[in-house]
Structures are given as C-alpha cells and as structure tokens.
Amino acid sequence: MRRLRVRVRGQVQGVGFRPFLYGLAHRLALTGWVLNDGDGVLAEVQGDALERFLTALAEEAPPLARIDAIETDAVPVQPGEAGFAILASQRGAVTTGIAPDAAVCPACLAELFNPKDRRYRYPFLNCTHCGPRFTITRALPYDRPQTAMAGFPLCPDCAAEYADPADRRFHAQPTACPACGPRLSHPIEEVLDALRGGRIVAIKGLGGFHLACDAFDAAAVERLRARKQRNGKPFALMVANTASADRFGAVGAAERALLEGVARPVVLLRRRDDAPTLPDAIAPGLAWLGMMLPYTPIHHLLFHEAAGRPDGTAWLERPQDLTLVMTSANPGGEPLAIGNAEARRRLDGIADLIVDHDRDILIRADDSVMRVVAGAPAFLRRGRGHAPASIRLPRSGPPVLAVGAHQKATVCLTRGNEAFLSQHIGDLDNAATLEFLEESVAHLRRILAVEPVAVAHDLHPDFQSTRFAESLGLPTLPMQHHHAHIAAVLAEQGEAGPPLGPTLGLALDGFGLGADGGSWGGEMLLVDGTGFTRLGHLAPLAQPGGDVAARQPWRMAAAALARMGRGAEIAERFAGCGPADGVRRMIEAGINAPPTSSCGRWFDAACGLLGVRAFSPGGAGFEGEAPMALESLVRHPTVLEGGWRIDGGVLDLTPLLESLLQINAREGAERFHGTLAAALVAWALPELAARGLDRVVLSGGCLMNAVLAEGLSAGFAARGVTALLPRRAPANDGGLSLGQAWIAVQSLLQEGPPPCASPFPPA
Ligand SMILES: [Zn+2]
Ligand SMILES: [Zn+2]
C-alpha cells in the first residue's frame, strides 16, 4: 500500500472534477481526500491501485475539464484511514482558471423533455457537465457564494443532489430547480407566440441579451435591421440542430464538430444553392451564413414549443422549421446589454418584448464566431464558450497586461506560461466600450489574482487603449501593430513546444501604425523574439479622405486608377459615388491622401473597380463589408500570370487591378483572390529560401478571408513551406493583445533590442 499526493492543474474547477475523483477512488477502493485550491485540484489517495487511478485520471476526466499537468509525490501512508472525502475549498493564493460557459449537456436535455422529471421544461437546469460558468462567476475559488447563484438557497431536493457524491449534480455550483432557482419573466409559449407574430424579442442569454425574430419574416428582419443597425452587418441564425442547419449551408465534419461542441459558437456555413429562401436583410449579398445551435435551456424550450412539446429527445435529431435571427443586443456599437434594467433602458424602441430572468450576468461575453479555414477551425471573434480559457505560451515569464489596439479590442493578461485572452470587447469608439475594456482588465486581475509588472500597447499614441495603458502607472511597452499580429501566432505555438527561432511573417491587415510613422498593413516581417525587420511591403496606395476610405471602396479604386496613370477616368467612373473629382485632386496633390501599404485597402480597391459594394450612401458601410462580398463571389480562384511586380521587396499588384477593368465582378473576384495569393507566395519564397526557412506565419484581418488563407496555405505547401495560421485567437485585431503580451514577456526576460526596433529607413 502507498499514498500519493496528486496535484492536477488546468481547467479543473467547476467541471465536476472532485466528484469524478470521488467516484474513481470508490471504484478502485482507494481512501483519501480531494479539495479545490488556488492551484487547481489537490488530492491524496491511498491504496493498491494507484497506477490505475492515475491512468483513469487522465483518460476519463469530465467533459469540460482540460488537464494541463498532473504532479505526484509519495507521502506517508495514513494507517487506518477509511473512505474518501471531499474537503472544503481552500482559499488563499488563486492561480487557477475558471471554465468557459458550456451548452446544455445530453443528460440535462433528457430531463428537460421528460414530463416525469422534476426539472421538466425548467429554463435554468444545468449540472457539473454543463451550464453557465465564466459569466456568473465573480471570483475564485469557484463556489456558489462567488457566483450569481449566491442569492438562491438550495431547496432540500437540490441540496440532497448537491451533497450526494453519486449524483451528477454533486457540487454543481449553479444547480437549480423550479422550487429554488431563477425564474423566466414570460412563459415560453408567450415568447414563441411573439416571435411567430413578427415581433422583435430581446432574450437574456448566457453572456448578454440577444435580439431575436422569426428569420423567415422579412418584415420583422427589416424592422430589426432598421431599429438596431443600419449598416449591412450580417445577422446570425439559430436553428434546432445540425440537420436543420444543413438545409441552409454545407455542414462538413469540421463544421459539425464546431456547431455541436460545448462552446456553441456561431459557425459560418457556405449557403446551399437550394437553401430555403431567407430575406435578403439577413446576410445581404453574402455566400456565407452564420448559424448556431441552442445552448441554453431557454433556447431549447423555444424549439421544443415550436415542435409541439414532444416528450423525450428523439425530436432533437429531426430537422425543425423554426429559424430565429439571434443577434447581439448591442445598439449603437456599445457593449452587449446584460442587466435587466439596462436592457429595458437600452432596448426601448428596439425590442417589442424583453424576456429576462433573475439570474444575473456578472461579466458579458458575446457569442464566439468561427469558420473552417484550410481544414481547421479559426476564430472570427472569440467570446462566450472560449473565454477565459488560457493559451499556453512557449515560455514562462513575468506577468504582463496587453491592451490591444482600437478595433475589435481584447485584453490579455499572462501568468507564468499561460495567456488569458479576454472575450471580444469591441471597437473603442465610445465611452461604454472603453469602460468595458477597463472592467475586463479588472475582472481578469481579480479572477487570476495577478498584478502585471508592465503593460503592452499599440505604437499608435492616440488610441484610447494606449491612453488607458499609460494611465495604469506601470512601465509601458509600445508594440508595432504587425509585429504583434505575427507574434500572436508565434505565441500560440507554445502548445507545440519551445519558441520558434527567426520567423518570416506576412501581416495582411487593414491599418496599423508603422515603425516609420507610416500607415502599414501589407507587411513581410522577419520576426525574432522582441525584434523584427521589415523585409518588404505592398506597394503604397493613396488613401483619399483617410479612415473614410476604409468604408468607401470607390475611393481606393480611384487611388488605384491614379496609380495606373488613369486618374482622368476617376470623375466619370465614380460620378455617382460622391465627390469623385475632389478625390482625384486629393490623390494627385497628395493632400489628405496618406499612402498606405494596407492589404485591406488593396482589397477595397479591387471591390471599387469591380463595382462590389463600391459605394454606401453616407459612408454607412463597415470596414471589410466589400471584401466579404467579394469573397462570396469566388468559386474557383484563378491566377493572372504577370499580375504583379516585385521590386526591392515591394509587391505591386497594379497590373492585376488594371486587368479587373475588363472583366465582370465574379471573374474579377476569382482573379483577384487567386492572383493575390500567388503573388504573396512568389514574394515570400526567395526570402524564405535565403534564410533556410520552411515555415511562414500568416496573420492580420485579411486572413479571416478563407479563400485567401486557403490559397496561401496551399500555395506555400506546394513549395514545401508550412503556413502557420491563427487558430487560438482571431487573425484580426482581436488577437493583437495576445501577440503584444508575448513580445512583452520575451522583452522582460531578456536584454535585447526594444520591441519596436526596425532597421527599415523612415519613409
Ligand atoms: Zn448537464
Ligand atoms: Zn431546488
């Protein structure tokens, strides 16, 4: 007989780990105890079957657990010990993680639709394998008094389950039932009637409110678009199950795994030609639909009601007609509404009915949005279901905070070799979003009990995030934008091992301030730890009018025409788009038309020349709108030989753009994507070969474009080069704080060049 002390690190609290160990110890006739503490789970086990215990510990862990490390020490045998106990949580130094929120598990669904179960149709059922976590937790250790369930004392039945080690709800902190738990403000049948009656319903979810309506009701969808947002951002849809989603868009194995996974993101599916006809206003002109499956009991109950309240779970597999628009309730570009009073105030005039409940949301989290890119999942937005899971860095270092840039802001706090990337925060265009950023930093500091020793921020001095970083009283580390994009991908390679050496990266992006003070965004960088060298960039295009050109592709098309020596055509071609002749003069005189090497602006130029969303009245479009529509036109990318020139590290796509003037939008979209990918590969290959490198990092907002990412990935692979794409964080600025944090960790670990050193001569 031996006794072992076992330390389990990772996502092991709030996921049923202690009851799992309890059951395991009983099965193997072991004695001892288990508890939660600041480092995860600590146990002592005594008996003969210790090897089997350790094997089962790793292999049979509960569905929401993620084990990062198991450490064992032999300790003295305790003579006469009987039984296995679950001891009270130890407070003290908190260094462990909180699990993300998870979709309702199959066992809970079986109860939800079983008329004999005491939780039949109860909208807040959950267990140790499912339900809310991150969004209802104030602080660690993760115990009921630290959650939004603190005000709901358990009834005798729930208390008995909670205390029974053989029960699925043993120590399930958010557990509840109709007798003791939260209540929904409106009966489900009333909510469904409202949706079917064409009304817009705000529904309180896990990380905030959604605005919902019947997706087949064109008038309701138009009304929602008019009330909530006037630009053309697509709305996500919720359907009952994969069989229902598959009627709209092609669901392959990778998409199915994403749709049905416990994180339940919105998943982009390529629209089927024979899909049921949806109103145009859902995803105007886009070949991709964002779809998700129900993840709270409230969602499931809506579909159950629509299906006629069938008993049992067989109906869950059959296609269902009910299709709901489910879009974040974030009017005015401000953060998602989470409070009941806040929802009534902010959604007044938008929602016809507000469905809330008395379980508070303590921290907001938007739905994650993912798509399959080059055969594997990629984030477009990382939020609910993923935050605050950590990303393992290649190396441990001092704790640092990073605050991102301006758009799609996230923050990142490191602890040891773990990087905690916050949920999506938003564009820092308003005070409310900035406040959310500050709250997110405070919340991460609290739940991780980490005090950063430095703060990394974007090189741009005028970003709100930069000013916030400077207000913290910590040493500040400015990071060049595209260096941080490449570093974000290098950071997540920590899962695979130690840091990579010098790495060539292509940052294909919208806008970032360059080390020379210019506007960058199509960069070839050689990144080595804290330093980088700008090996090349896309040929600069004038950006007439500055930022507004990012939402008015015709302006970039005008700049491209000027570059072709065809400036005289601008006024005629874009006569209907606004001040076309004024824009020509700005470009020719170089006034308010700063040059940019941005890949995103080259995309815009192509869209403008092809007449794809070239002009939105009043500048009402959103950045990336036209390129998304352009990507939607592509079936088979084509390559125009001679479509580019490479000169002194500068890649010039002017011949490609000039050729677009002769062809239609679809052909143009296919030629632009195919030729751009081929040109980028041809540009990078000699630089890779000269350094003996067989890996290239691809990052930046343009890599959210699956056609481009796949073209690059395949193009490099054909030449024996592995392309590393962002997988754990978004390719766009949502992943930037991770890269900033990783550069900061390295710079604090070593004496070396300052993070932004660049030998490239100023422009
Ligand atoms: Zn469950
Ligand atoms: Zn109860």
UniProtKB/TrEMBL annotation:
InterPro entries linked: Acylphosphatase-like_dom, Acylphosphatase-like_dom_sf, Acylphosphatase_CS, Carbamoyltrans_HypF-like, Carbamoyltransferase_HypF, DHBP_synth_RibB-like_a/b_dom, HypF_C, HypF_C_2
UniProt KW Metal-binding keyword: yes
Keywords of this entry: Hydrolase, Ligase, Metal-binding, Transferase, Zinc, Zinc-finger
EC identifiers of the protein: 6.2.-.-
Catalysed reactions, as listed in the record: an acyl phosphate + H2O = a carboxylate + phosphate + H(+); C-terminal L-cysteinyl-[HypE protein] + carbamoyl phosphate + ATP + H2O = C-terminal S-carboxamide-L-cysteinyl-[HypE protein] + AMP + phosphate + diphosphate + H(+)
Domain YrdC-like: from-to ranges: 185-385
A single MF term (Gene Ontology): carboxyl- or carbamoyltransferase activity
Top EC class of this enzyme: ligase
Residues of the active site: 18, 36
GO terms classed as biological process: protein maturation
Domain Acylphosphatase-like: 3-88
This protein's pathway: Protein modification; [NiFe] hydrogenase maturation
Keyword Magnesium tagged: no
Homology family: Belongs to the carbamoyltransferase HypF family.
Function according to Swiss-Prot or TrEMBL: Involved in the maturation of [NiFe] hydrogenases. Along with HypE, it catalyzes the synthesis of the CN ligands of the active site iron of [NiFe]-hydrogenases. HypF functions as a carbamoyl transferase using carbamoylphosphate as a substrate and transferring the carboxamido moiety in an ATP-dependent reaction to the thiolate of the C-terminal cysteine of HypE yielding a protein-S-carboxamide.
Cross-referenced NCBIfam families: hypF
Name the UniProt record assigns to this protein: Carbamoyltransferase HypF
Organism: Azospirillum brasilense
